[in-house]
Design goal:
It is built from eight helices and nine strands. By secondary structure, it is α/β, with parallel strands linked by helices. The two termini are about 15 Å apart.
Length: about 200
């Protein structure tokens, strides 16, 4: 699939990883950090890739300095994911849509992101989200008409809140691809699986 010039990608990577006890963005799987894995996939989809950082931002910046991306540092990242989304969208470029993804779901295949984009092209003014584990959630694409709502997010209320409150269409993601890394056990389990596309 061709890269989209009208789609911006926001990778959420500002959190403190409190349950893990270290910066999950820097955890390594197959000699790449989680943040590097997310960025590489994003760059295959769009040239407009933005990464929002907060916790340990100086360390993480060193890991991603050679990628052609824009880095947003959220000074209020401790307020929660909603605050990081709001701050990022307020500093975003002129794009028609934004795809919001998490840095800690390395199993999500590239073709899932491409399917989200295709469905978004068919439903230009709707939120296109993922469905897994019987829930609708990010990764999700938000058209420009939702940017003001994204800017108004606060605290720990993230994009999922908007997905539930507004019209959307979903793309099924197999549960086995949806697992994120929140704890040391999650990480150890990841080291024992084949995660690449």
């Amino acid at each position: 699939m061709e890269k989209s010039n009208h789609l911006g990608i926001l990778i959420l990577a500002a959190g403190t990883s409190s349950r893990l006890g270290e910066a999950k963005q820097l955890l390594e799987i197959a000699d790449e950090t989680l943040i590097q894995i997310a960025i590489k996939k994003a760059l295959q989809i769009s040239s407009n890739v933005y990464v929002v950082l907060g916790h340990k931002s100086d360390e993480i910046k060193k890991e991603i300095k050679n990628f052609p991306i824009k880095i947003i540092i959220n000074p209020s990242y401790k307020e929660g994911i909603g605050n990081s989304i709001s701050y990022s969208i307020s500093n975003f470029p002129e794009v028609e849509k934004v795809l919001i993804i998490l840095c800690d779901q390395p199993l999500i295949p590239l073709n899932h992101y491409n399917t989200l984009i295709k469905k978004s092209l068919q439903n230009k003014n709707l939120i296109i989200c993922s469905k897994y584990q019987n829930e609708i959630a990010v990764p999700a694409i938000f058209p420009k008409n939702y940017f003001n709502l994204l800017k108004n997010l606060k605290g720990d209320k993230g994009a999922k809140k908007l997905i539930y409150e507004n019209p959307s269409k979903s793309v099924l993601l197999e549960d086995k691809y949806s697992t994120d890394i929140d704890t040391r056990k999650d990480y150890i389990d990841f080291l024992n699986i084949s995660w690449r596309d």
